[in-house]
Amino acid sequence: MVKMIAVNKLDELFSLLAETSELYLPIKNGEVVLYQQWQPGSLVTLDKTNSAVSPKDIFLPRDETYLQYRLCGRQLEMDSVEDVGDIIAFGIHPCDLKAIEMLDRVFIEQDPPDALYRERRNKTVVIALACDSPDPFCFCQEFGIDPLDAPGADIMAHLTDQKLIFHTRTEKGRELLLKAGNLLEEYKGAQVDKIIKTADFGLNVEGLVDNLQDRFTDPVWDELYLSCLSCGICTYVCPTCYCFDIEDYGNESAGERFRCWDSCMFGDFTQMAGGHNPRAGRKERVRQRFMHKLQYYPREFGDIACVGCGRCLRSCPVNLDIVQVIKKLGGVKDA
Amino acid sequence: MENNKLNRLEIITKTLSQDLLGGRINILLGWEKGHYWWQSRPLFIRNEKELGNLVWDSFCAINLSRYLPELLKDYDKIGVLVKGCDSRAFNRLLQDNMVDRSRIVLYGLPCMGMLDYEMLLAEAGQEIDSIDEKNEMVIVQTKDGKKQVDRSKVLMAKCRDCLYPEPVVYDQMLGEPFDRKQPPERFNRVADLERLTDNERYTYWEKEFSRCLRCYACRQACPFCSCIECFVEQENPRWLGKAYQPSENFIFHLVRAYHGAGRCIDCGECERVCPVNIPLQEMNRKLIKDINELFGEYEAGLNASEEPPLLTYKPDDPSAFSEE
Questions:
Q1: Do B217 and A29 touch (CB under 8 A)?
Q2: Cα dihedral B195, B196, B202, B203 in deg (nearest 10)
Q3: Which of A40, A127, A260, B87 is the most exposed place for a label (fewest CB within 10 A)?
């Protein structure tokens, strides 16, 4: 099914979709763009490049309650957490959707799967948006991603000439467009045909993955970590980082147990009771993060855990990003 | 201009090379180019080859003093390039006993203020091939030709109101001071916020803090955040929960700002590194303004031997609480 809507009518569409679903869109918040729940008046920005933070928090919220408890006399009562409603993830770029599929392997395609993540993922219709204005930090094509096409989407959207054109890919996608009913028009124009070129940093990552494990004590790590400030920016803006922590929040009589994002760049990430810390320094932590991206994840699941979204290139305050690391490790094409 | 720039770097490199080979320093902290010409990253120089990557241009915003406490564990004598703000950061660390003055050689670099690539891009209106700098002008080269832009329009936010572009402490100065226009009044924005009602201010900061990821980059880049253990990580007592709650975000930012009262050097690194553009400088400047009004003019990091106002007691200190 192919449909279209004029850009100036989008607010009506968002309004309709938000009646029955949590609708997430790239929305301007202050000076930055973040994927947030749409509300009337939200400044939706579909024509910009990647959001400051990846949309992974639609499925893996920064903070998610999974049980609530209270003391009734000497009895501990458990309350179930509210059910997840329908979700629409609108305007997801192909790189970010590829990253979400990588998270699916970790959270869903395991035994047992992660019930909270699976619930949110299953209840979501993904409307991907072709990305035709990559910025200098975008390098998804280095990882074989097509910025104009997200194969895993329920609906693929293209923004062109003040129109948003929808191509349905799944039954879920068809149902959603049917719900939008007469707000949408038939589209009979040609297939959107553009040529996009993202940054070419000359990477050759495949060769790296083969033997990185053997390079655990390589002196290159003694240099790489030096500039790291030990903040958590890279892990929090990254679409393929998924580590979390579990904590309680409450008082003596009631509270909740929640999970929230955590970062392997923080010193307390591996802090043990008793005082031992197996990754005590910045070197061990920097190595861990990049070994995870370039060795542990690909060994388990096949793909390198980077989609070239460029967020670490843009946000790392000292420019210690994955491209620099891959290059320093020797993952470059022969000249 | 291109030649002047080259000469300046050549002179700097020559001095540094002599000091590195002669053993005055074992390691030098400088900057090198990132992926693009408008990016720089810290450079750790131990030999001539590494020195070859050194750059000094209008994109060297990263404060290098921040690396000194940890680097002193591994190196005996450390050289570090310091702009005005970096030199005050050094004084700040010195006041906290985080660095050993006798093992550091400070190379001073007078600074014209760092440029903001995004603002250059906005002025150019299209992709920029390169830039050239002439005094107070920046000449932007695009495929359609050259465009002159007033330097003050494309300065990084943190540099726009800089009061001390020249290093306030150094062992050797590696450049000539620039003529510089008087910077604008830096408390205007704070005064605007002060005029809001309590509720309006709360709403303002609630919205700004709602974006906070608690990545702690502001803390990690900050020269006054030199605590060996931050309250954020303390387990017993647990001051701050990990929950992504507005109240926890407020607690983090307010405690950090108050801890910086009289110690913040107004370098703006916190705001520069923030990945979600929280206007952290406004909060720090409010405290600088309050300290000035309550205890008399004080500029943190100017003079390492002068005690910060909140670390001293004077009988005539204001005591607003007891008076009311």
A1: no
A2: -140
A3: A40
Neighbours of A196 (CB within 10 A): 15
**A313: which chain B residues are within 8 Å (Cβ-Cβ)?**
35
Name the residue among B41, B220, B277 with its Cβ closest to that of A30: B277
Can you state the angle between helices A94-107 and A115-122, rounded to 10 degrees?
140
DSSP lists the bridge partners of residue B190 as none
Residue in chain A nearest B221 by alpha carbon: A229
Per the CB < 8 Å rule, is A233 touching B213? Answer: yes
Residue A231 to residue B273, Cβ atoms within 8 A: yes
Mean local confidence (pLDDT), A163-176: 96
Identify the H or E element spanning B127: none
A 263-322: CB under 8 A from B:
263, 266-268, 282, 313, 315, 317-321
Closest chain A residue to B273 measured between Cα atoms?
A317
A25-39, A77-91, A282-296, range with the lowest pLDDT: A77-91
CA distance A49 to A148: 13
Instruction: Tell which residue, B83, B249, B236, has the closest CA to residue B173.
Output: B83
CB burial string B155-181: b at 16+ within 10 A, e below: bbebbebbebbbbbbbeeebbeeeeee
Q: Are B262 and B302 in contact (CB under 8 A)?
A: no
Dihedral pair phi/psi, residue B38, rounded to 5°: -95, 10
**CA separation (Å) from B44 to A217, A288, B81, B239?**
20, 22, 11, 36
Q: Which residues contact B89 (CB under 8 A, 6 or more apart)?
A: B63, B65, B66, B82, B223, B265, B267, B301
pLDDT tens by residue, A16-56:
999 999 999 999 998 899 999 999 999 999 987 789 999 99
A318 and B41 within 8 Å at the Cβ level: the answer is yes
Interface test with B, best of A48, A224, A229, A314 (most B CBs within 10 A): A229
Reading the block at residue A51, the tokens are: 């959001």
Token pair listed for B235: 């387990």
B219 — contact with chain A (CB < 8 Å)?
Answer: yes
Closest by CA position to A221, among listed A162, A288, A126: A288
Determine contact: A63 vs chain B, CB below 8 A.
Answer: yes
Please name the member of B44, B220, B277 whose beta carbon is closest to the beta carbon of A32. B277
Interface check for B244 against chain A (CB to CB < 8 A): the answer is yes
- d(CA B296, CA A214) in angstroms, rounded, equals 60
ipTM of the complex: 0.93
Within an 8 Å CB–CB cutoff, is residue B210 touching chain A?
A: yes
Angstrom distances, CA of residue B190 to CA of B155, B201, B283, B298: 20, 11, 8, 17
Structure token digits, residue A162: 């003040």
